[in-house]
Design goal:
The complex is a heterodimer.
Chain A: H1 2-31, E1 34-35, E2 41-42, H2 48-53, H3 56-88, H4 92-103, H5 110-121, H6 126-133, H7 147-171, H8 176-183, H9 188-216, H10 220-224, H11 233-241, H12 247-269
Helix pairs in contact in A: 1-12, 3-7, 3-9, 7-9, 8-9, 11-12
Chain B: H1 2-10, H2 13-18, E1 24-31, H3 39-47, E2 49-56, H4 59-66, E3 75-76, H5 80-88, H6 108-111, E4 123-135, E5 159-161, H7 165-175, H8 185-199, E6 202-205, H9 210-216, E7 221-225, H10 226-235, E8 239-242, E9 248-257, H11 264-274, H12 277-287, H13 294-298, H14 302-305, H15 314-317, E10 320-321, H16 328-343
Classes of the chains: A mainly alpha, B alpha/beta.
Chain lengths: 270, 344
Amino acid sequence: MHKLRAWFLLPARLVNFVCFVVPLCIVLAYSLLSRGVYGGVEQPWTFENYRRLVDPLYLGIFLRSFWIAGLATLLCLVLGFPLAWFIARSSVRRRTLYLNLVMIPFWTSFLVRTYAWMFLLRDTGLINTVLLATGIIAEPLPLLYNNGAVLLGLVYGYLPFLVLPVYTSLEKIDLSMMEAAADLGARPITAFWQVVVPMAKPGMRAGSILVFISCIGTYLTPDLLGGSKTIMIGNVVQNQFTAARDWPFGAACSLLLMGLVMLFLRSDEL
Amino acid sequence: MNRRRVFLLAVPGALAGCMKGQTRRLNVMNWGDYIGSTTIRDFEREFQVKVRYGTYENNEELFGKVMGGNSGWDVVFPTQNRVAPMRQLGLLAPLEHRRLPGLANLFARFQKPLWDPSLEWCVPYMWTTSGIAYNSRLYHAGAPESWKDLWDERARGKLTMLDDVDDVFGAALAKLGYAYNSANPEHLRRAQQEIITQKRLVRAYISTEARDQMVAGDVLVAQTFATTAQLAIDGNADVVYRHPKDAFAVYCDCGVILRESKRTELAHEFLNYTLRPDVSAKIAQTIRTATPNEKAFASLAASEQANATLYPASEVLDRAEWPLPLPPEIVRLRDRLWTEVKAG
């Protein structure tokens, strides 16, 4: 029986080993090597890349990335939970429709959707044109190329990652529990907080982790919607592998990011 | 078995040419939107070959793809400052000039360029400069003459700079009177101070997206490549492109043959094809950039030859600098200074 289980798990283990463990080991090895003149890595082995990371400049960028990703996750929760609740409480037929609507944006690439936001937010974009034409504003609002635009892009892009898991846990909740709570004297608000929210927690946690991890590694959104004026740790990593031609430092950056994210998620569990 | 072979040999050459395995194949990778609409098809038809054509968006992407030495590509088009690194990494095959008679069509300037004086490794393909584009109707601070005009308070919120460490530092260095391509740490530190001062005015660091925003009038003044500016001018006649009075950069993308290529003969034929005056002229007209090919230039309409955006006068071009590869420690310093600007 045990043997059979091992055999069934073998393909998954193999994929995990080849596609996750091996690349991670390569990244680890790169982070301990020296940079080649034109990219790539060279001997000797060194801890220099990690030492360089202990620097207010890079730590500040890490901190800022955590802050932006955290804020985006929080916004996704605030917006996504009511939406998931609404979908879960709709009739079964409607539910399928709504879930499809949540997923439709995935039919086009993230890049295209980000460009679409640029067209909406520009000075001569749809939003400013309408506001100007209706006389609500006299000067175009600076909607694009700031932190607000970056946050908007992140929340928009990753909201479905939160809605779907939260929906899954909400959908399973038996409404008679709410009635039972009401019978025991709880007001609707209390019943919601003490009955529904605790049961939705696994979905909220899973969704938040998905959103947070996607946001913290992002580099496209700060470039396109932030006009490259702000920098997140994803941009630092990308830059090391491109213009700066410093692969070992980029590898060290991405490993530190992974470590910090793991620590962060651990501390959340405790 | 024997009979079939005899049969195969008897098939007319043209038909054999269409059969898989018989057709000569060439793998060409170039920048996106950087070739004439029929260039590849015409070449395939004339030489009875099949071309696999791929694209990349920047030099780093190209580097990443070919660095391993088994990318499967034969001909690629790096910018001039990547030619020496590619050569030093052993990625390039030397050119055989007897197979490239078209080299004689190039402008003298491009026959002996600084980065490869006898064109041992690369064939100049198309070139452009980086300068200042502005909206002559809506930008009220007057026509920008030199880089310092991009530090004008009146440009606030209407100015974009290239998202490119070479050119942002280049402009600041030139403003200070240093070389556009300076590798002096002290110069770079001073340039960083200038860039930090300027950042308050900058709307965004963007490259090709500047075109649409110049056309729409969101951006009124920008550091751009001449080719981007030309596309903006085509969309909005108010846009004007100037080569700054101080130094500016000139970039040339060059065709090279990768050392891994097993089809160097055909690769030479392709490079020589791009040197034909009519071919080169058609490419330059399609992508709205400048050809280094004198005979191609001569075949352009007088109005195109007089286009100072793409073809600055010789004495203007004398002020230009070719960005060349910098030593690794300078690249590292500059990247750090640039990260500080962005994190600030």
